[in-house]
């Protein structure tokens, strides 16, 4: 996966422009209300979303692609970026909240579980999770070879998992789910060309120290 993203960030730079996702704005308001002080952003890319949080919270981004991190260091110097995989990172200090934009759907089931387990381990008890992922209402759902239930190779060499509401809730079944939502997201490349995606979001709370693998 890192080769794919490295190549894209090296060739295309700020692939989705500089604006953060509107979901980052929503998450920031929620985190503020809950008196959050620290935020982890797994799959931080080049920092377009971390910048939304780092102006107010202590923010840590984890990112696999060196090319993305090189851009991120300049774009969001207030964020502390860690080079590595969220599947096996281990922070020295737990955080109050996690915002994770369009990362979870990139993995097959085993690694989706691992991602969520590891994220929960980085979070204080009572901490908040705000995740977004592709929805099964997105037009790419059902396109291409089916690799696992609801996971399709929708472009040559690129697959994603498309979440129904029930499936998303099931992935977070060991958390206290606060709410779910659907978002029409418009992503613009640096040339201004726009593409629309249908996403689902979930806001949840880590209720106690039990892990997802229990
Ligand atoms: C769809 S992009 C989203 C980037 C960013 N969240 C944004 O919206 O600008 C997914 C990102 O996750 C990163 N990524 C993929 N696998 C990862 C992993 N195991 N650990 C950390 N980052 C990963 C990719 O390099 C890429 O930057």
Describe the structure.
This is Methyltransferase type 11. Pfam families: Methyltransf_25. One of its GO terms (molecular function) is methyltransferase activity. InterPro entries: Methyltransf_25, SAM-dependent_MTases_sf. Residues 39-127 form the Methyltransferase domain. The chain is an alpha/beta fold. The chain has one domain (2-134, 162-205): Rossmann fold (3-Layer(aba) Sandwich). Helices cover 27% and strands 34% of the residues. The chain is built from 6 helices and 10 strands; from the N terminus they run ααβαβαββαββββαββ. It has helices spanning 2-12, 22-33, 50-54, 66-75, 109-121, 165-171; strands at 38-42, 58-63, 80-83, 95-101, 123-134, 145-148, 151-155, 158-161, 176-188, 194-205. Strands 3-2-1-4-5-10-9 form a 7-stranded mixed sheet. The longest helix is centred in the middle third of the chain and has 13 residues, at 109-121. Bound molecules: S-adenosylmethionine. S-adenosylmethionine is lined by residues 1, 5, 16, 42-43, 45, 48-49, 62-65, 68, 85-87, 101-103, 106.
Give a brief rundown of this model.
The chain is of the alpha/beta class and 214 residues long.
Which key features would you list for this structure?
214 residues; 34% strand; 7-stranded mixed sheet; alpha/beta; Rossmann fold
In round numbers, the mean pLDDT is 94
* Helix residue percentage: 25-40%
Helices and strands, in N-to-C order?
HHEHEHEEHEEEEHEE
Would you state the CATH class?
Alpha Beta
Radius of gyration (CA) equals 16 Å
In CATH, the topology is named Rossmann fold
Spatial arrangement of strands, main beta sheet? 3-2-1-4-5-10-9
Q: Do you know the CATH architecture? A: 3-Layer(aba) Sandwich
Please describe the biggest sheet, giving its number of strands, its sense, and whether it closes into a barrel. Answer: 7 strands, mixed
Spans where pLDDT lies below 50 across 5 or more residues? none
* Total separate domains: 1
Q: Determine the structural class based on helices, strands and strand pairing.
A: alpha/beta
Oligomer: single chain
**CATH homology superfamily:** Vaccinia Virus protein VP39
Individual helix count: 6
Strand content: 25-35%
Small molecules (ligands, ions, cofactors) in the structure: S-adenosylmethionine
Cα distance, first to last residue? Answer: 28 Å
Keywords: Methyltransferase, Transferase
GO molecular function, one term: methyltransferase activity
Protein name: Methyltransferase type 11
InterPro entries: Methyltransf_25, SAM-dependent_MTases_sf
